[in-house]
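Translate sequence into structure tokens.
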Amino acid sequence: MDFRSFDFNNKTQMKKSILSYMCFTIAAMIMGSSYLFAQITNSKESFTDHQKLALDIFRELIEINTTVNNGCTKAANAMAERLSNAGFPHEDINLLGPNSQHMNLVARYHGKGNLPPILFIGHLDVVEAMSKDWSVDPFKFQEIDGYFYGRGTSDMKCEDADIIANFIRLKHEGFVPNRDIIVALTEDEEGGDYNGVEWLLKNHRDLIEAEYCINMEGGGGDIKNGQHTMMEVQTSEKTYLDLTLEVKNKGGHSSIPVKENAIYRLANALTRISNFNFPIRLNETTKMFFERSALQETGTIKSDMINAPRDSAAANRLAMYAPYYNSMLRTTCVATMVSGGHAQNALPQFASANINCRILPDESQDYVIETLKSVISDTMVSIKFKYPAISGPLSIMRKDVWDPVEKLTATMWPGVMVTPVMSTGASDGKFIRNAGMSVYGVSGIFFEIDDIRAHGRDERIGIKEFYEGVDFMYSLIKALTME
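Result follows.
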């Protein structure tokens, strides 16, 4: 209101102005109250107790540096203390490992014993993160624009916090499962020297023996263009294998070059590998994956997904369409590191390259090596490996796992398709599958498939997606363990 132009002798104008001012003030008060209510309902004040607990545990885990040089003992101890304070008996909480820096947590939630236990696994370690490469401190838990940031937010301390929070919630509610539930939070899944699951299987298998295993990082949901599209259940994964190609010769002075050159010979071998494709092979999981994925496609891609199991031309077109589909359809081997020579003014006496292979579950390491020898076709190029490949058979989908996942997904995210999937990467599931237990990768957390930041800079997870994942896992645990 501009009082400079106001006529104080005009009573009608005064009444109208006062009335307008009162209306404006009341409207502003209402708008302010609405804004305040929105702020309150979106704040931590509106969180349920179990959401607050999950957030608190998540923050604690992110801010414990569990990279390979630090180990996971501090994080394992912190989670053990959480369970102990919640009333879990000390004899059901075990901290075990090859040394004091590399300890694993194994905890047991006792049930009625009507059925064999279920094992839930997750790893506490994270890959290295250089602060100078990030826009935020990687080991400071931060909430920014609808995301939680920090190393391990997506891989995979979100699920670690999830399972511990739900163990505590169920304990407080007095829930008695029909079987024991075991959780193992382990060391060095990301490539250290003390792999926790492998160590536990060798030294304390009795503590983690179960009818089957839920690997909380093996599956999960996809978000594409803002839409929840697919829930994946991992039933198999490709086998990891590193091979070293090596060429040696006598070398010489670079001013007198000869045709025989270790670097050139290695380069020829790498070119042959680059031009080679392993045969396409589909298994039960990948057949169903493409059949279900076809429901979301149109045109040639839809047709090729449906026909791939029976039509090699369709399968080959599918492999060419996307690198991910190619990796799902065949064994792959790719050069990842090259080195050679010893001086700038000398002919190379050696040259080597690392070849990283991801092998289909039903193909062997020996088959891959013999195939590459044939492809290279040069006896002066040796092929060596430092560690043998650890493979695990495909886990046949169980109805008592599949049905609850489908039902919960349909309830929480109507229209989202559930499909089995073969991971093209590697997880700790391979050790357990190799030991004879079926493993199913299940998580209720969704990620944007075009913005995967695990192992990269500014790793993050959607806040809404985190809490939905906690609720999903709570309901899944109950569904798997109720009468």
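Note: The two ends are 70 Å apart (CA to CA).
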